[in-house]
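Q: DnaC replication protein, please. Structure only.
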Amino acid sequence: MESVKQHIKSPEQKVLQTFVCDGCHQHVSQTELIIPSGPREGEHVIANYGCRCEDIKLAKAAEQNYSQLKHRKLMEKFNYYSLINESLKEATFDNFDAYDTNLKQAKKKVLAYSHSFDRKQSLLLTGDYGTGKSHLSLSMTKALMKRRYECLFLSLPKLLTKVKGTYNTKGVTEDELLNVIQRVDLLVLDDIGAEQQTEWSTSKLFEILDDRSGKATVYTTNLSSDELKERVNERNFSRMMDNTNVIVMNGSDYRRRNF
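A: Structure for DnaC replication protein:
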């Protein structure tokens, strides 16, 4: 039995020109083809053999789709695990109210930290109530997540309450939560020193800090260095200050300034 291929005519081909494509920089043969049979028999078709522009376009589209999917998954995980006060959720660098020189400098330093993000460098934001420490920290996580870094923002008092809650309820387990804390590129531990002081809380804080050793962590507190050291104990304070830059944010409470 004769092969079907023996009855299929190959199209006539004529090379019109060769050139280097401006888009993909490949050597291209522009070829004229004459369709030998079928409804379009005799039709002349121009084809550019060797051009990779369409392949590059498809690859870029696939890469963009993957990047968007990855960002969406990062945001879903951030929103699922993070523990953020409702009043902070819209915080960005743009809507941070740097109403005096000290806070303008603080914003400048935090922006510089996020622009040149180092996975091993940490920050401690300390100062008066209501000066925007949490606002700047959350703004930082949003900026870094746009660059596909995995971040987590946790109020320490809420985190310890959450961990305790995992002991008697279904859902997120303590191990799962601590694994996420350990893995992320940047962890924000907000409001350190506001948690209830117990032997268990001090021990759990050390476990968290130990897991984050050598990784970027941002701490916020309203306490001075001596107060913080007394509050979290010497060992935890030492872990917190390892490779950590301090930014002091003092001023009036901008949430109450208008009063």
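A: Brief note, in case it's useful. The chain is about 40% helix and 20% strand.
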